[in-house]
Amino acid sequence: MNDLFETVRRAVHTNWDPIGVSDLTTEMGEYDSYVPGLCELLRKHASEKEMFEYLWTVETESIGLQGNRQATERFAKWLCGLSVSNGS
Q1: What is the distance between the alpha carbons of residues 3 and 24, in angstroms, rounded to a whole number?
Q2: SS3 call for 2
Q3: Which phi and psi angles does 14 have, rounded to 5°?
Q4: Disulfide-capable partner of 50 in 7, 46, 56, 75 (CB 3.0 to 4.6 Å)?
Q5: Which whole number is the average pLDDT over 28-54?
Q6: Residues near 5 by beta carbon (within 8 Å), at least 6 away in sequence
Q7: Quick one: how many helices (H) and strands (E) in the chain?
Q8: Is the model more confident about 2 or about 45?
Q9: 57-84 pLDDT, tens per residue?
Q10: Can you say whether residue 70 is alpha, beta or left, with left for phi > 0 and alpha for psi between -120 and 50 degrees?
């Protein structure tokens, strides 16, 4: 796995964690299916709005939660702040 994938994977588990599983386990598989999409958005230099919309759809539709808009906006902003090269 590349560095970008691992960075995003860890951040999704510890910084975003909409289900709240990071307090229960160190295993990071719960959100793995969403990491490739986030990495692709990063490689395409998606806007914070695009990143937020992806995360919000995952949180509210795929996972089925009510969602925490402020936390998701903060995480989208943090993700967009990562330095990403197209070759990552």
Answers
A1: 25
A2: coil
A3: -100, -35
A4: 46
A5: 93
A6: 35, 36, 39
A7: 4, 0
A8: 45
A9: 999 999 999 999 999 999 999 999 987 6
A10: alpha
